[in-house]
Amino acid sequence: MKYFSTLYNKHVIIFEFMVSFRNLFTMVLMLLTVAASSQSKQGQAHKVVIDKILGVVGDRIILQSDIQNEISDALRRGDQLPENAACTIMEQSMLSKILALQAEKDSLPVSDEDVEAQLDLRTRNWINQFGSVQALEEVAGKTVYQLKDDSRQLIREQLLAQAMQRKVVENVHITPSEVKTFFEKIPTDSLPFIESQIEVGQINIYPKAAKEVEEYIYNEMLNYKKQIESGATTFENLAKRVSEDPGSKERGGNYEINRSDKSTWDPVFLSTSFRLKPGEISMPVKSNKFGYFLIKQDDRRGDDAKIRMILRIPPVTETELSVARAKLDSVRKEITENKISFKDAAYKYSDDDNLKNYGPFILNQDGSTFISIDHLDKEMLNTIKDMKIGDISKPVNFTNEQGKKGARLVYLKSRTEAHRLNLKDDYSKIADQAMMIKKNQELDKWLEKRIPNYYIIVDKEAAENCPGLHKYQTTESRGF
């Protein structure tokens, strides 16, 4: 493959179009090149490829820049990439487009709400990864909303592909004898070493600040509003000085928001922002989840707005934390006396926002409840260090990732010892791996039957470098 080259002097972008018609699909193929018009001694201009089409499936294209962006994103996430990462991503892209097109033919349901929910989830993950909205936007060179717009069509395609893949393998099952056979085929010296893992659950309570503390913060916010409106200071300078929102403090409280982004923003904050007129400053508004907001709208265009905000969080004292611990003491007693299970108690009493979607146990990246101890925060490690399997800790104070103080019960459900992979201790892991391979085999069979039904072309150079792409070269126009 040819990769991006540095361009010198004057340059001209040349678009070359190839048009083919197959099964009512109009194919527009664009080969982007740049002519660097630096004159050589022979007076010849040099052309440098800055982007090219690597593959086409139906009416969808895969650009070289798409593959490079995927690799760059993976490196930013700290993922380990194989030597043939570009080939792997290219093969996945081809498969994804075939699955998505078939899903559309079969009218598999993927709604706009599904797409937006996935966009919101990924956006939150990006923000958590980079630490703040500002850091994310600086790394990406785009606003959060531009990132969403860029990702929307790709996420829709991925959701369609996933729905189609589930349909293809929905009847695939595996028996214990198949799991045993699969395991016995693994060479003994290739069996992986499994580190010790634990299952840890928690019930969290976040107490509210005392009424007089909340009143003090409210009056402080009123005073900020007066200072700004009197011209004694600016909203930007005050936000930099007093705001407790780490995502916007250094930017003077600046955010770009969208009315429909309800899963990312606090609903009180969002509704107040869009009730304001440009230049208007709100009264202090309380959010149960965060604290008190003071909001100024700078500009608004339809459902998009530029705002500034100041956040103050009423501090929780030891008095409120002791009340929370007393409540958790009662909860712990109910559990230890078998009046309620830990899981049911968590759903009944915990204030954890993630409980509804993920349950009370800390999850690994693959969604498993088994985690290594380096996955835990220091406070949690200190809590479980002397606990035995089945123990529930006494209520302890802690501070979450957002800096919010609370109290929690910790439940150590299980612990595995470090060992070599074996059927007795790791049957579920082995069964999952065997099932995955069986599903992949079923998917390969399905793909082999479907490929001839689609107009597919693959870049010759890409096919030469990636043997896994050979199976896609089945149309009469093999490569370009």
Topology:
Blueprint: E1 11-22, E2 25-36, E3 46-49, E4 53-57, E5 60-63, H1 64-77, H2 85-105, H3 112-130, H4 133-140, H5 144-169, H6 176-184, E6 193-194, E7 198-205, H7 211-230, H8 235-242, E8 254-258, H9 267-275, E9 285-286, E10 292-301, E11 304-312, H10 318-336, H11 342-349, H12 355-358, H13 378-384, E12 396-399, E13 405-415, E14 419-420, H14 423-450, E15 456-458, H15 460-465
Antiparallel strand pairs: 1-2, 2-3, 4-5, 4-15, 6-14, 7-13, 8-11, 9-10, 10-11, 12-13
Helix pairs in contact: 1-2, 2-5, 3-4, 3-5, 6-14
Short description:
The protein has 480 residues and is of the alpha+beta class.
Kindly describe this structure.
It is flat and about 70 Å long. Residues 1-46 have low confidence and may be disordered. The chain contains 15 helices and 15 strands. Among the domains are: 194-206 and 317-419, Chitinase A, domain 3 (Roll); 211-312, Chitinase A, domain 3 (Roll), CATH 3.10.50.40. Helix 2 crosses helix 5, helix 3 (112-130) packs across helix 5 and helix 6 packs across helix 14 (423-450). The protein has 480 residues and is an alpha+beta fold. The strands form five sheets. The chain has a four-stranded antiparallel sheet with strand order 8-11-10-9, with helices on both faces. Strands 1-2-3 form a three-stranded antiparallel sheet, with no helix packed on it.
